[in-house]
UniProtKB/TrEMBL annotation:
Organism per entry: Kosakonia arachidis
InterPro entries (alphabetical): ACP-like_sf, PP-bd_ACP
Gene3D superfamilies, per database record: ACP-like
Domain Carrier: residue ranges: 7-83
Protein name as it appears in the record: Phosphopantetheine attachment site
SUPFAM superfamilies linked to this entry: ACP-like
């Protein structure tokens, strides 16, 4: 997937697309189903996965995820809280 052009899509739409892609990446890594309401750590995520996926989100969607929020909230809450 190429980087999303924020001129063509509003930021809320970018967050939705980024969350969907993040879930797909996480399912591939963890080899199990993941939902937007899952907590990253509870489903088996760890710091190395978080760093790698957060970098992909930054590069492809120009969004920066909070590691603290990622560890303490659901995936959807993490993405929708991005300013």
């Amino acid at each position: 997937m190429n980087a999303v052009d924020l001129d063509d899509v509003n930021k809320e739409q970018v967050k939705v697309l980024a969350l969907q892609q993040y879930i797909a990446w996480l399912q591939d890594i963890l080899e199990k189903p993941v939902s937007a309401e899952d907590n990253f750590l509870d489903i088996g995520g760890h710091s190395m996965i978080a760093i790698a996926l957060n970098e992909r989100v930054r590069n492809e969607f120009n969004l920066t995820l909070s590691m603290e929020r990622l560890y303490n909230s659901t995936l959807s809450e993490t993405f929708y809280s991005i300013k």
